[in-house]
Each structure stands twice: as structure tokens, then as C-alpha cells.
Design goal:
Chain A: Keywords: Acetylation, Ligase, Nucleus, Ubl conjugation pathway. Chain A: One of its GO terms (molecular function) is SUMO activating enzyme activity. Chain A: Its main location: nucleus. The complex is a heterodimer of chains A (313) and B (610). Chain A has 313 residues and is α/β, with parallel strands linked by helices. Chain A has 2 domains: 8-181 and 262-305, NAD(P)-binding Rossmann-like Domain (Rossmann fold, 3-Layer(aba) Sandwich), CATH 3.40.50.720; 186-258, no CATH class. Chain A has 11 helices and 10 strands. In chain A, the strands form 2 sheets. Chain A has an 8-stranded mixed β-sheet, with helices on both faces. Chain A has a two-stranded antiparallel sheet with strand order 7-8. In chain A, helix 3 packs across helix 11 (264-283) and helix 8 (200-215) crosses helix 10. The two termini of chain B are 36 Å apart. The chains are: A alpha/beta (313), B alpha/beta (610). The interface between A and B is large, with 60 and 54 residues.
């Protein structure tokens, strides 16, 4: 159907998952090319998952040099200083990932001009906006994802542009279509019409994003000392959106700026959900997440939030 | 905040952890525990690594196939966390402070583990996944339900007559091919087999039909194969058809004979069995009929002719290459030739009964009871286990949650936490509520009670049965010969003939010292039992009641996932023969338990449905 059959080797290796998503989905996976940046704990988990699933290729980008901190929740980096000294996170992770599944091409070079999926991990507001815009301008549809973890919380954003997929309704397969807003659109939705029960993390993440951009900070470069500035920004954003300040709890903001050490169980959970979504997006099978996902280990909920301009119209 | 985090870290670092199982969830769990700061982890698994594990059990590589899972997992994690203590066991459970389970434990073993936890007052975090669905549950004695408070789904069974004479689904054909035909041809000849039971006039011609399956010394294998083929797909169907009553409201099956499907002789055309035996090495795992017939794709649907060719070819190969194993074989999903034979036989039977045929890939999944598994769900569930484990170590009882992973969001949630259920007050395991046993006390022997109830239903390993002060039965290494003889003679007596007669109204005490479980059984005498509905000839009640006292939000909110999980896990097993496999049973000796008590336990097996 989709070109070549899976090889005998692939069928044997992927047996258990083909039983979950079918041979067609597996064929599409083996032909997909994924770009990933920002390889910290959650993204390391994500990479492991998609390499195991058997995508065609994974291209890694993370120029930061490996240090003590990068070892924290990233099991792709062996803690041997002699081995990692002077190497980038991407280089070290690439070596580990290759080993997980020899059938997947893992590299730090941009060997593929065109990616099917782009994942921005722990990106700044500007990066997320810019890369998303770039993806949207390409003639070929590129699935765009961002992931961000702070303390024991996480956010996933999904932009599949105009997305067609099949889902099973009773015994029949139904063709469906969804239109996704861009990152820019999704983060500029006025707060007031957003239903009150929406995850508070959506608002809190916007506050932190603006804080880091205003202050010229890298992702996660903050501490309790920054709380007054963060609260000031929150106040301004709430005023601009004509909502009360209680809309974004101070305690949550405090958690997000102080919890700078990654919480490995949360990384496993969010990295797992993200990989599941990317697999869905590539295979066109099953209802995708639209367009934000939030997890908070404190209440244990993993929630999908559809935040688009539909509220305003 | 800081002190809280320090407390958390010291709780984690002080914990000695035992994981049972290093499979799908196990690999993920070991990794997440190590990253989360757990320092002293013991991991146990009796399994060795297979190729089909590698798509999700990321600590293993192709070069590890055949090696101990526990050991390879340990070595792999030590590579990124070299300074922690991980000990691996390729055998039995020893003496940890904290236990984490992740294995394909059977329901029986799960119950055993549950009781060990209850006996030692050890909290238990338990979980399971299938496909995109997963679940994590905390069991703390007295605070939440125990693992046996709720009914567990038993492997699906089918009435014998559906399998032997009136199949309506492909799974019925698979069960027939695997449990009856395959067992008859290649398994233990002395075992009871219903293959011919329902054929008309079975009694009168039983001698004759028995002989069909015996191969004469010098009988040509292909001729023999055709004879079997004609007997089971032709003659037996004809015989069944003659019983008009059966087919009044059913679609009549079509007898199929080899001469109508296959050319006169296969030997010249395809039969390369003899030719190739000279060249290939006799490795039973790699013997396969498919390449000899030019069949490559296991996902391809074969027609009647192809299935018939595979049937004959596979049968020939068993006799030509694996003759020594005949008489001792049981179906194994990793035995390629067995899968080919069962697929072909099931498909020919399906054709006969007008049931849609299936590919080898699909048939293997059904016959082997293969659980759908992906890496992502296991990773998510492992994360959830560690989060609950930390709460348990911090004794944050109010925060314990049972979490469901869903495939589609329900009330916006993909990960849905609910409050844990309270203990079921009528649970015979954790609440010591007496059970009621209806039994014919004059006819049923003590042996029936021991086998069908005490071992099979109550899952006791080393039972002891008392009536009042009189000891009726006991198992143990320290018994003298007189006692053993005494107990053995009791086994063969009916309940009412026992030295202390067990009659209507008697109360039995049944104990397992290893599990520290003791329960009371109220005996009710009953004369008759329905053979179809109550084949055991006795009915035990009160041992699988669901709690009715739980919060409504919890029980309604998980409806959706409960239904889905149940569907996807209903394994086609005609009988639960493999369930009690002792290789899966973790044993903690009483002495060891006393010297080093388990502080917490976490289990994660594949199928766990509330």
C-alpha cells in the first residue's frame, strides 16, 4: 500500500507494536524523518521512544557542552568525564541512541533537507515562534511540537497545520480533518474567554516565557530571587487580559521558577506522551492531541487543552 | 520546599528496592528509579531476552538475545549510574526493603505476591499496560483495597462443544488447532483429548478413530498427513453433519478432503523435505515450511490451497526433522513450525465453517495470546509508579492515586488519577471474611477440594486444612512418613468419610503458612451440579465480590478504560493450564521475611484490570 513491505527483520523486531498500530503505520514510521533540539531529560526520553518505535531518522541538535547538570535526568549520557569532556550533548546522545536500534539513522548532521517532524525542546519564546513559522512556510506539511518541563510539570504544544487522519468509529474507518493554530496564534489567545477550568499551567507557562524573554534568560535560568519580577509580569498580563490576578496562582509560578532540577519520573511521562503523539502524527492513525498537553505530578493529571481562537469568535 | 525535597531524597536513598521482572515496564522502571536517586535496587526476572522484546525493552540489544533479562538490565543501567547498588537475580525473590514488580506474572502469582505484602504489612504499587492503555495502583494494608479485593478477569474459556463441533469465530478454530489437533498429533499421547468426542457414533468407532492418528512405522509421511487431513477436515465434519439436530439453526460446515484441494502427489512439486534435510542444520527453532513453499510475508492471507500445503509440509517437517520431540510438544508461540501448523489447521477449519481466514501474523497473536505492547505506555507507567512509590515512602497517604493511561482523552484527561478504592470488607484475603462452598460432601473427595478450590481458586501454595482441631491435610518438607501416608489416604476419601467428617454446616480452616493467609470456609452440602455451568462439581462464593462502598466518581470515571482494557486482554485460552507455572512464583521464605522486612512493593505486570 505505502510502497515496500517491511523486511523480515523489521517484522520480527516490531512485532508487538505492529499489533498495536498495524503494518501500514509502521511503514510510514520507518520513512519519517524527525528533527529534535534541546536534549534534556524529557527530550532524551522522547528520543529513546521514537528510536525504539523505528522512525526513519532522528537528527539531534544541542550544542551545549556536557556538564554535571546535563547528566541529571538524561540517561543517554554516561557519566564519564573523560568521555564527554568537550563534546556536545547532541554528540553524546547520538552515540547512545544509535545503539538502541541499528535500523534508525541517528545523526547530529542535517542529512535530510526535509523533516516530517520538528520537536523543539526547552526552547525560548522567540525560537518556538520562529521555527514554527518556518515550518508553516514550507510546501510540505511539517508536524511541529514543543515540549517544556519545569519542576514536576510539563507542557507539550502541537501544530499539525491542516491535518487529516483516520479514526475508528465503531467498525468503520472515518476520515477526519483538524485545523491547528500556529504557536504564535495559540499563545496570543485572549485569556478572558478561555474556560475557567483550563489548566493553570497554560497561563503560568506564558508568564515564565515572557519573563525569560524580557530578562534575556536561557530556559530555566531563574531562581526564587526572580519571583518579584515574575509576579510583576503576571500582574501586567492579567491586567492586559482583563482577568483577576488569581487566574495564575503565585504558588505555581514559584514552583516553576525554583524547580530547576528535572524530575525524572515526570520526564518519562511527558516524553512518553510526546512520542505517542509524534507516532500518531506520522502514521496518521488515531485522534491527535490538539493543541496543548499539561502534566503536573502534584495532582497527577495529564490534560489536553484545545486553545485556539475559537473562543473569541 | 528545600527541606521537603531533602526529606524526599533521604526517603528515596534509604530505600532498598526489589523489582520482580525486567521486561517492558521493568526496563523503564529500573531506569527511572536509578535517575530518581534510588540507590539500592534488586532486580529479579526468570526470563531471557527475545528479539520481540527489543522494540521496547531498551536496555537490551540484539547481541543479548538469550541472556538473563535481570542481569543485562542491571549492567545497562550501571553504565549511566555506576555508583548505585543494583543486584540482579535470575531466579527467586530474596529479602528487600522495597519491592517493585514488573513481569508477566500470572494471576495466581499476583495473588501470592499480594498475600506476602499483606502478611508483612508492605505497601504495594502495582501496574500494567496493554497497547496504549495502562494503570498504576497503590495497595496499602488497611488504607486501600488489596490486589484481591476486586474480581480479576479470568482467561476466556469456551464451551468444549463450541470448539469441537460448532465454531463460530476464528479464535475457536485456533483453540481447536492448538489445544486439540496439535496436542493430539505432537503432544502427550496419554492426555485426554476431545478431538473426536462429538463425532457421531464416536463410541462405536472409537477404536478405529484412535488408530487414524497412529503412524505406522513405514508409512509415507505425506500419505499419513493426508490421512489426518481427510479425517479431521473431511470425515469428522461429515460425521458431525449427520447429527441433524446440531445444524437446525446453524450454518452447515463443508467437509474438505485433500484430493479436492491438493494435487495427487506433492513430493515432486514442492516436497523438498528430503532433499533439503541433507543441507540444512537440524535446529528445531528454525525449521519452517513457509520458505519451502515460497511464502515470505507472514501478514499475507493464504487461501485454502496454500493453507493445505502448509499443513502437509509442516506435518512432514515435524516427522522428518523433529521426530524426537513428537509426543512431548506443547504449543509455543515462538516455535515457528508449530505456529505454521496451527495457522494452517485453523484456517482450513475456518474455511469449512465459513469463518473468515487470518494471516499467520494474526493467528500467531491469537494462538500465543500475545499482548500488544509499545515503549511509550511502559515509560509513562514507570514514571507513574515512581511518583506513587515516592509518596508511599513519604507516607503521604492522602495523596495516593490510582492512575489510568487512556488512548483517547476522557474529560480532557489522558492521564486520569482517581482516589484509591477502600478495602473491600468482604474480601477473603485482606478482610478474612468466611467463604461459602457448595459441594457434594458424600461424593467429592478431599483431593477435589484441594485441587479445585484451595490451589486453583484460593491460590495457596502450601496449604493446611483443618476441621475444628482435626488436621485433615498439610503440605511441607518437615512431615514424617506416617503423616504423609495419613494425608494421602485422606485425599482419596470423600469429605463425609474423613476422620472428622465434613458435612453440611461444617466450617473448615484453610491456611497457607508461607502466605500467612488463613481463611474459613462454610460448607454447604448440595446433591446436584450442572455439568455445563458448574463443571467443577462445586461452587465457591464470597471470594471475588466487588466492593460496593467506593466513591462513585471513581467507579464511573474509569468505566471507559475498564471496558477497553477488558476487551483487549481477553486471551483465548481454552483452559488455564499454564497459569500455575511455578517458574513465575516468587518465594520469600519466612525466616528471610523476619530478618529483613519488605518496606514497600511495586508491581507492574502487563494485564491488570479492575
Amino acid at each position: 500500500m505505502d510502497g515496500e513491505e517491511l523486511t523480515e527483520q523489521e517484522t520480527a523486531l516490531y512485532d508487538r507494536q505492529i499489533r498495536v498500530w498495524g503494518a501500514n503505520a509502521q511503514r510510514r514510521l520507518t520513512k519519517s524523518h524527525i528533527f529534535v533540539s534541546g536534549i534534556q531529560g524529557t527530550v532524551a526520553e522522547f528520543c529513546k521512544n521514537i528510536v525504539l518505535a523505528g522512525v526513519g531518522s532522528v537528527t539531534l541538535m544541542d550544542d551545549s557542552l556536557v556538564n554535571e547538570e546535563s547528566l541529571n535526568a538524561n540517561f543517554l549520557i554516561p557519566p564519564d568525564e573523560n568521555a564527554y569532556r568537550g563534546k556536545t550533548v547532541a554528540e553524546i546522545c547520538c552515540d547512545s541512541l544509535k545503539d538502541f536500534n541499528p535500523m534508525v539513522l541517528v545523526s547530529v548532521e542535517k542529512v535530510f533537507e526535509k523533516f516530517d517532524v520538528v520537536v523543539i525542546g526547552y526552547g525560548s519564546l522567540a525560537t518556538k515562534k520562529a521555527v514554527n513559522e518556518k515550518c508553516r512556510k514550507l510546501s510540505k506539511r511539517v508536524a511541529f511540537y514543543t515540549v517544556d518541563c519545569r519542576d514536576s510539570c510539563g507542557e507539550i504544544f502541537v501544530d499539525l497545520h491542516d491535518y487529516k487522519y483516520t479514526k475508528k468509529k465503531l467498525e468503520e474507518k472515518v476520515e477526519c480533518e483538524l485545523n491547528f493554530p500556529s504557536f504564535q496564534e495559540a499563545v496570543s489567545v485572549p485569556w478572558k474567554p478561555i474556560p475557567r477550568r483550563t489548566a493553570k499551567l497554560y497561563f503560568a507557562m506564558r508568564v515564565i516565557e515572557v519573563f525569560e524573554e524580557n530578562e534575556g534568560r536561557k530556559h530555566g535560568e531563574c531562581s526564587l530571587l526572580d519571583l518579584p519580577t515574575v509576579l510583576e509580569i503576571k500582574k501586567k498580563l492579567c491586567e492586559a487580559n482583563s482577568v483577576s490576578e488569581s487566574h495564575v496562582p503565585d504558588s505555581l509560578l514559584e514552583r516553576l521558577i525554583t524547580g530547576t532540577i528535572e524530575f525524572p519520573p515526570a520526564c518519562a511521562i511527558i516524553g512518553g506522551i510526546l512520542a505517542q503523539e509524534v507516532i500518531k502524527g506520522v502514521s496518521g492513525k488515531g485522534e491527535p492531541l490538539k493543541n496543548f498537553f499539561y502534566y503536573d505530578a502534584q495532582d497527577g493529571k495529564g490534560v489536553m487543552e484545545d486553545i485556539s481562537n475559537s473562543f473569541t469568535s | 520546599m528545600d527541606t521537603q525535597q531533602q526529606q524526599q531524597q533521604s526517603a528515596i536513598q534509604g530505600a532498598k528496592v526489589l523489582m520482580v521482572g525486567a521486561g517492558g515496564i521493568g526496563c523503564e522502571l529500573l531506569k527511572t528509579l536509578a535517575l530518581s536517586g534510588f540507590h539500592d535496587i534488586h532486580i529479579i526476572d526468570m526470563d531471557t531476552i527475545e528479539v520481540s522484546n527489543l522494540n521496547r525493552q531498551f536496555l537490551f540489544r540484539r547481541s543479548h538475545v538469550g541472556q538473563s533479562k535481570a542481569k543485562v538490565a542491571r549492567d545497562a543501567v550501571l553504565r549511566f549510574r555506576p555508583h548505585i547498588n543494583i543486584r540482579s537475580y535470575h531466579a527467586n525473590v530474596k529479602n528487600p526493603d522495597l519491592m517493585l514488580f514488573s513481569t508477566d506474572l500470572t494471576t495466581w502469582t499476583q495473588g501470592h505476591v499480594n498475600r506476602l505484602c499483606l502478611a508483612a504489612d508492605v505497601p504495594l504499587v502495582e501496574s500494567g499496560t496493554t497497547g496504549f492503555l495502562g494503570q498504576v495502583t497503590v495497595h496499602v494494608k488497611g488504607k486501600t483495597e488489596c490486589y484481591e479485593c476486586q474480581t480479576k478477569p479470568t482467561p476466556k474459556t469456551y464451551p468444549v462443544c463450541t470448539i469441537t463441533s460448532t465454531p463460530t469465530k476464528f479464535v475457536h478454530c485456533i483453540v481447536w488447532a492448538k489445544e486439540l489437533l496439535f496436542a493430539k498429533l505432537f503432544g502427550d499421547k496419554n492426555q485426554d483429548n476431545d478431538l473426536n468426542v462429538r463425532a457421531n457414533k464416536a463410541a462405536s468407532s472409537s477404536k478405529e478413530t484412535e488408530d487414524v492418528f497412529e503412524r505406522a512405522e513405514d508409512e509415507d509421511i505425506e500419505q499419513y498427513g493426508r490421512k489426518i487431513y481427510d479425517h479431521v477436515f473431511g470425515y469428522n465434519i461429515e460425521a458431525a453433519l449427520s447429527n441433524e439436530e446440531t445444524w437446525k439453526n446453524r450454518r452447515r460446515p463443508r467437509p474438505i478432503y485433500s484430493k479436492d484441494v491438493l494435487p495427487e502427489s506433492l513430493s515432486q512439486k514442492n516436497g523438498s523435505t528430503q532433499n533439503c534435510s541433507a543441507t540444512s542444520v537440524d535446529d528445531s527453532a528454525t525449521v519452517s515450511a513457509m520458505p519451502l513453499l515460497g511464502l515470505k510475508n507472514p501478514q499475507e492471507l493464504w487461501g485454502l490451497t496454500q493453507n493445505s500445503l502448509v499443513f502437509i509440509e509442516a506435518l512432514k517437517l515435524f516427522f522428518a526433522k523433529r521426530k524426537k520431540e513428537i509426543g512431548h510438544l506443547t504449543f509455543d508461540k515462538d516455535d515457528q513450525l508449530a505456529v505454521e501448523f496451527v495457522t494452517a489447521a485453523a484456517n482450513i477449519r475456518a474455511e469449512s465453517f465459513g469463518i473468515p481466514l487470518h494471516s499467520l501474523f494474526e493467528a500467531k497473536g491469537i494462538a500465543g495470546n500475545i499482548v500488544h505492547a509499545v515503549a511509550t505506555t511502559n515509560a509513562i507507567v514507570a514514571g507513574l509508579i515512581v511518583i506513587e512509590a515516592i509518596k508511599v515512602l513519604k507516607k503521604d497517604a492522602d495523596k495516593y492515586r490510582m492512575t489510568y493511561c487512556l488512548e483517547h482523552p476522557s474529560r480532557k484527561m489522558l492521564l486520569m488519577p482517581v482516589e484509591p478504592f477502600e478495602p473491600n470488607p468482604s474480601c477473603y484475603v485482606c478482610s478474612k471474611t468466611p467463604l461459602v462452598l457448595e459441594i457434594n460432601t458424600q461424593k467429592s473427595k478431599l483431593r477435589d477440594l484441594v485441587d479445585k478450590i484451595v490451589k486453583a481458586k484460593l491460590g495457596m501454595n502450601l496449604p493446611l486444612i483443618m476441621h475444628g482441631a482435626s488436621l485433615l491435610y498439610e503440605v511441607g518438607d518437615d512431615l514424617d512418613d506416617i503423616m504423609v501416608a495419613n494425608y494421602n489416604s485422606n485425599l482419596e476419601k470423600s469429605l463425609s468419610e474423613l476422620p472428622s467428617p465434613v458435612i453440611n454446616g461444617s466450617i473448615l480452616t484453610v491456611e497457607d503458612l508461607q502466605q500467612e493467609l488463613s481463611c474459613k470456609i462454610n460448607v454447604k452440602h448440595r446433591e446436584e451440579f450442572d455439568e455445563e455451568k458448574e463443571p467443577e462439581g462445586m461452587v465457591l462464593s464470597g471470594w471475588t465480590q466487588s466492593p460496593a462502598t467506593n466513591g462513585e466518581s471513581a467507579s464511573t470515571s474509569n468505566n471507559e478504560s475498564a471496558v477497553e482494557v477488558t476487551e483487549s486482554s481477553s486471551g483465548p485460552e481454552i483452559a488455564s493450564k499454564k497459569r500455575n507455572s511455578p517458574r513465575h512464583s516468587p518465594r520469600i521464605t519466612r525466616e528471610k521475611q523476619r530478618t529483613s522486612r519488605v518496606k514497600m512493593m511495586m508491581i507492574s505486570w502487563r494485564l491488570k484490570i479492575p
